[in-house]
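INPUT
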Amino acid sequence: MSFGPRPWQQAHWDWRAATNFICGGTGSGLIMVLAAAWLDSSEARALLLAGAALVGIGLTGVWLEIGRPLRALHVYFNPRTSWMSREALASLPLFGFVLLAAATGAHAWTLCAALSALAFLYCHGRILHAAKGIPAWREPWVTPLILITGLAEGAGLLLAASAGFSAVAAPTLTVFAGLALARILVWRGYRARLSRHCDRRALAPLDAAGGTLWWTGTVLPLAALIFAQFAPAAAAPLAALGGLAALGAGWSLKYALVTRAAFNQGFSLPVLPVRGAR
Amino acid sequence: MTRWAMVADLRRCVGCQTCTAACKHANATPPEVQWRRVLDMETGEYPNVKRTFVPVGCMHCDDPPCMHVCPTTATKKRADGVVTIDYDLCIGCAYCAVACPYQARYKTDRASFAYGDAMKNEQSRFEERRLGVATKCTFCSERIDAGLEKGLTPGVHPAATPACVNACIAGALHFGDVEDPASNICVLLAENQHFRMHEELGTGPRFYYLWDKGQA
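OUTPUT
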């Protein structure tokens, strides 16, 4: 680690922390999209459980990262100000409601699970925003970016899974396309507003991930969906391809954001000391 | 109300790192952990280059982001402004470390010693409870507290003053009560122009840098 005045990449949060943002985002996004799609089938219940499992994998990643894993329950001690505590608290009803929804099939529980998932995903965004030491994270647009990319990933996963299970419903395609477009717009807004304190070395991986988000996460899936309209026989594999491409691009963006663009702002002097006689 | 603060006179600091060594000695921090460190900053282009030595560490902010983000309440702020960490509550999530704009926090997961095996002094001062948790400058709060109990004045009497300030060979580091207009540091702040690091972030750091004499 460099201790110099120039910004350097934080080394405290690595792929394990990124796993939480990646899997937790996709899982909570999937739960919300499932609730919005009003699906009622054994496949939908399986996907609900898969969403909760993804959230669980993400939280396990964080648990693997903390220095004192046996004290993990201390994470609930500060919901008054800490978004990490709030995230942990939001996960509890999320798991509970998903289990209830999967067990009973009642859509009311699915809606409750979706509300918990929304709270969980919002906490993700605010966790990054509250990290004042990292210019790429503290930008306020990071919260809508995390929200929309989680939703788009969830929709992508639903699309891919639906293509595997059965014919993809038109509303699912529309929601997915809308979220993919909204994600790229929010990304553009976020990227344009990154503060002048953001180091060029932080912007480089973000721009690379942004390119992936555009071509792989937006253009390719939308082109696949359009092409599928003219080739019904290939509709299912094309939908799966589009969904997985959108999912992968979102994961790539969040991995870059957490592990590669997380440069601090270093130190700088607004004025230099005046030595000797003037 | 007392508010402890530190003042670094950038015109005086010679970058000798004695404060860093004194801090390591006083707090028995492991290798690569420097609660008080001195940056060596070069500005300008040859031949008009200036070199400035800048002591940094925990700024014991008025509104510390590390405290707000801490999920365990391990990071707290005392009434006198000193930001503390309860090593027995901390889970070592390092959220505070990424929230700190001054890179003042460290997390050491494994015991490490200067020359591999622990020397006798390292063995005797090793604290297992500091492993896997966040650590940082404490403003030598135990010295402040012990000194105050004896009726001493932090920043004036060495026994009540942080080790880095005591050790400074150039008289660049000062410590005192920023709420007391008659304190040593308030006099320095009144007589000199000063700034605080990354003030635009609104954290209210309690570490002031003197850079020029006061304007007439």
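end of record. The two ends of chain B are 30 Å apart (CA to CA).
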